[in-house]
Amino acid sequence: MTRYILIASGKGGTGKTSCSINLAAAFTYFNKDVILVDANIYNPNLSINLGIINPIKNMQEVLLGKYHILEAIHNHSSRMRIVPLSISSSYITKMDLSNFKRVLYGIDGLADFVFIDGTSGNNIDTIHLINAVNEIIIITNPDTASLTDAMKTIRLANYYKKPVRGIILNKTTPNDFYTSQDVENLMKTEVLGSIELNHLIPMANHYKDSILNLYPLDRSSLGFKKIASDLLNEYFEFKVENKGFFSRFVKLK
Question: Are 190 and 164 spatial neighbours (Cβ–Cβ below 8 Å)?
Fold first, then answer.
């Protein structure tokens, strides 16, 4: 049975799209069949970050009824399948997500997981996306504004009786005012993991791929794999090569 997971953020700039790409890549690492859907109709950065620019068959055309969603699936070199949006501004005034759930279920049974990179903010489009999925993962940063807006998204999910699987605390630094425990206490929601602020993530976006594929032993890559292993209840073991005579194994459960 296909599981539909919304990757949501109460505000822009949290790194939601990068987390969507890398979490989907982490599920693929564990041999799960993943389709990644770009539903950020006003700022389709996922499609840009994966190098699918202005495809003729895109999610806007699917929502407008011109194509079936199966026709808009594009294969990516990372083994993920992508349903992209066009970056053309001509669609902006034509689009809403009122029929998103109906068109989305056209891919039911074709993947283990469908990740939806949602719109930023808390609005009617967010509500349509919440109602289309099985569960939600919240992306936020350890600052007051991001946490406040993330709390609003969690309240929306609770109102519509959709489970929030947890929070990914993104762009963390050693000097953050809020710790993971602080965030859990404040939000009453589990923090699935923390991803450090990392210049390699925008580098991966530049090269149109996930950080997991380009830098598989980077701390952020391992962090996404650890989050995925916990969500999937998979055993995760990785080997870090040192320059000396020894290597070390790190096992995460």
Answer: no
pTM over 0.90, yes/no: yes
Residue 47 CB partners (closer than 8 Å, separation 6+): 38, 53, 55, 58, 82, 84, 85, 86, 87
Closest to 224 in 3D by CA, of 116, 137, 151, 149: 137
Q: What is the pLDDT of residues 220-231, one digit of tens each?
A: 999 999 999 999
Domain tally for the chain?
A: 1
Q: Helices (DSSP H) in 78-199: which residue ranges?
A: 100-104, 124-130, 144-159, 180-187
pLDDT 10s digits, 183-214? 999 999 999 999 999 999 999 999 999 999 99
Range of the domain at 220: 3-252
| One-letter amino acid of 50 | L
**The domain spanning residue 127 has which CATH number?**
3.40.50.300
